[in-house]
Q: What sequence folds into this?
């Protein structure tokens, strides 16, 4: 069975009004009823304005705003990634947390940004990598903005079985040009799909894109203008690329063979163990 997932990457300015967000999304879904996964940028619903501070916008588990998002996903029967939010940690701090809601309204994943953009970003770093399964399609990993600059994070998501990595972004600086290249590189070296969804002007610089497992840009925005990028992700392309190689040549996930010795990794105070190199494969039950 071919595993196809129609998705939409919403390059839009930050929008703090959830009621307005819901109305906008309903309108989009009416125009694109075939889209199953809708993805919005980093801090889409909790971007500080004026003198607001992150802790003033932070949401706790069970907050009415989160319940409204859950109900919206169920109403529209979609997979919804409404961007990341500031999550209150209960001790006066906040995390930058990406949320995922399923078409039944359940919150199926929450990922706390591991690499905040320091020194300016004040959120606390998360400590866990997060993937989730879309039954009948494939496994998806979560990443937020500056995370993409650390190859260990995307590599680990791919090792956990992620066939598509969603990177939620709010980059308003000139290095967005470099992030476009990094997005392609992360897709190439991990042989998986990578989507980088940046906010539109005036919030950020746009240039969102979706890259396939061989590094080809499937769809992209050339500017910071508000736009909706749509495409169909073929999860089986990951399997094909890893089996036959990028450009029918390179197969990094098949690098090691029986008898290869472990390689010391002083940076991590650990080792690269050939016996643990092969990425996880979602079971038939998980994707059924």
A:
């Amino acid at each position: 069975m071919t595993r196809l997932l129609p998705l939409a990457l919403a390059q839009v300015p930050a929008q703090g009004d959830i009621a307005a967000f819901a109305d906008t999304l309903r309108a989009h879904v009416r125009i694109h009823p075939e889209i199953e996964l809708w993805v919005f940028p980093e801090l889409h619903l909790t971007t500080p304005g004026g003198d607001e501070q992150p802790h003033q916008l932070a949401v706790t588990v069970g907050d009415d705003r989160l319940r409204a998002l859950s109900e919206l996903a169920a109403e529209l029967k979609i997979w919804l990634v409404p961007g990341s939010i500031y999550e209150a940690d209960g001790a006066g701090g906040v995390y930058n947390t990406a949320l995922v809601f399923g078409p039944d309204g359940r919150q199926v994943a929450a990922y706390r940004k591991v690499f905040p953009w320091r020194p300016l970003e004040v959120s606390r770093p998360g400590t866990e990598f997060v993937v989730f399964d879309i039954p009948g399609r494939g496994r998806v990993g979560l990443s937020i903005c500056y995370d993409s600059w650390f190859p260990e994070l995307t590599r680990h998501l791919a090792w956990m079985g992620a066939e598509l990595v969603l990177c939620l972004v709010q980059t308003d600086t000139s290095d967005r040009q470099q992030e476009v290249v990094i997005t392609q590189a992360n897709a190439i070296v991990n042989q998986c799909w990578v989507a980088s969804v940046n906010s539109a002007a005036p919030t950020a610089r746009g240039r969102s894109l979706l890259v396939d497992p061989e590094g080809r840009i499937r769809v992209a925005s050339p500017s910071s203008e508000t736009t909706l990028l749509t495409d169909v992700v073929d999860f089986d392309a990951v399997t094909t690329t890893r089996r036959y190689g990028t450009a029918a040549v390179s197969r990094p996930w098949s690098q090691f063979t029986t008898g290869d010795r472990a390689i010391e990794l002083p940076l991590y105070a650990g080792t690269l163990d050939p016996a643990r190199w092969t990425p996880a494969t979602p079971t038939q039950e998980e994707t059924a």
In short: Helices lie at 18-31, 54-57, 64-76, 151-159, 176-190, 236-244, 284-287. The chain is about 25% helix and 25% strand.
